[in-house]
Amino acid sequence: MVANILICVIHQTNYLLDQLLRKLERAFVREDGLRERMTRAQLPERAEQKTR
Which domain holds residue 31? Predict the structure, then answer.
């Protein structure tokens, strides 16, 4: 009985992780990679620092 519950929990967790990975992959492709996003966030900050 407990083994069946654990198997169900494992399957549900696996399904949710698969969904999360798909979502993250779509976001990565749509919004560029981490470095590109970091650069976009840093450029305005650097420009603001130069004007100070």
Answer: 2-51
